[in-house]
């Protein structure tokens, strides 16, 4: 979360490219490119911004190679996204996004190339054109909220941005993207078995996250697995397709060393500039604030806000901004206008409170829709330097939300200097295994509560597979400041 309140028009992006022919005509049209270019900055802002660094140069170069192998030389744009969510996705116009979370779990250049080739496969197969309209607005009553209020921002809150960009492809489309991707991977000169290795790594991630779920409930299902359904049969299918190319496993290069060299120093986990989501807790070492949601809530970090989902259809955001003249009441009113636009809203009397030593204002509101009123609860907190922070929570059900929201609203607090200092960024460091090293000694160097599990998972290693001196491994360590 960064400290400004933004406005979003993801809806226009999501609907761009609809209504065209299915898999006919060129895979990348000038019209699609222009639409994707126009939305690029906004989409990036929504997902964490572009990651700056050598790793992004590396990704762009590799992407160019894969696009060329797919006959789309110079027609695709590859971007490394600054989030630890594991995901990759393609937007019509061949704008392809890969997260640093995905780069962290990849073990070779060939594996990363296979992900890019798969996404280019979705472009060549023109899958999004058929998918977007049908799936994106599915469920949640999200559509109803937008139709009834005409408010895109409220729609986003009701839906949650992560859900918004969840392009769900059919199994047939996934298989086609796998098949097309494998061809591009092979043409670009990589070991075609890298694709099944990569799919295997992703399903191990699912297991790893399931096993360490208590640590981080919000991320228990990797985004990539949600958007690209992973099954054992898909891994096996990719392996058989690689065998069918006639190539022997490892006959063609995967470039492990070159990849690890490029990866060395990549930020791992949350970015301190966006704050840390730790299970149901959120803490921002730069803004020096935090809160903790009650059991049953999940948090998702995005650059503009923390998206919050609770029981009984409770949804909302935590964000911040400048306090206007008129204080917290004026802030709450400005926030409501931003959230709702011109939608009719009934605002109740604000109730002043002290929350953990901070001045706060609780404002109940109700949005009128054709289906009755949607309760909207706002809590605003006065911070230093003319800034304020807020929760804005909508609920689909009429009753019960106040009881669930009170502990959330009362958990807001300022961080001490010591608490802020402990929230240090982590980076991936590539280390060479020394003569006396064991899995235990190397895992002991991991800056994580699940040292051994994370070591085995990031290095794609079975517990009984010994390390060899001279081998390169990924270690997660605290960054020097
Ligand atoms: Zn896919």
UniProtKB/TrEMBL annotation:
Keywords: Hydrolase, Metal-binding, Metalloprotease, Protease, Zinc. GO terms for biological process: proteolysis involved in protein catabolic process. Residues 58-240 form the Peptidase M48 domain. InterPro entries: Mito/Outer_Membr_Metalloprot (IPR051156), Peptidase_M48 (IPR001915). The keyword Transmembrane does not apply. Pfam families: Peptidase_M48 (PF01435). The keyword Transport does not apply. GO terms for cellular component: membrane. GO terms for molecular function: metal ion binding; metalloendopeptidase activity. Its cofactor is Zn(2+). PANTHER family: METALLOENDOPEPTIDASE OMA1, METALLOENDOPEPTIDASE OMA1, MITOCHONDRIAL. This is Peptidase M48 Ste24p.
